[in-house]
């Protein structure tokens, strides 16, 4: 039996032990401070997983994630805007 398996059976959270200092600093952040964090700040503080483990909800989307989500929803052509004058062919958001 390996060390991780033993700690799992004993219900010891190795993740929390290894990241205790970061979890404490994340837990100390106010809601206002959380809203002001950039994705770079979140990465520097240990990543989104640590924030979730600390029970903090964050808005964490990198540009790459946003682009991937857009491309998954995109249907190649938007016929809804095809027949309107050029001034109306703006992106709908």
Provide a descriptive summary of the structure in words.
The protein has one domain (3-79). The protein is 52% helix and 0% strand. It is flat, with a radius of gyration of 21 Å. It is built from 7 helices and no strands. With 93 residues, it is mostly helical.
Secondary structure class reads mainly alpha
Compute the average pLDDT.
77
| Quaternary status | single chain
Provide the gyration radius in Å.
21 Å
Keywords:
flat; 93 residues; single chain; 7 helices
Outline of the structure:
The protein is an all-alpha fold. Helices cover 52% and strands 0% of the residues.
Any chance you could write out the topology, listing elements then pairs?
Elements: H1 3-9, H2 14-18, H3 20-27, H4 31-35, H5 39-44, H6 48-53, H7 63-73
């Amino acid at each position: 039996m390996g060390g991780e398996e033993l700690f799992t059976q004993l219900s010891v959270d190795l993740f929390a032990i290894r990241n205790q200092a970061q979890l404490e600093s994340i837990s100390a952040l106010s809601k206002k401070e959380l809203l002001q964090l950039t994705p770079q700040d979140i990465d520097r503080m240990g990543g989104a997983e640590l924030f979730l483990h600390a029970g903090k909800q964050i808005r964490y989307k990198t540009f790459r994630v946003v682009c991937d989500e857009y491309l998954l929803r995109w249907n190649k052509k938007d016929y809804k805007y095809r027949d309107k004058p050029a001034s109306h062919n703006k992106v709908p958001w």
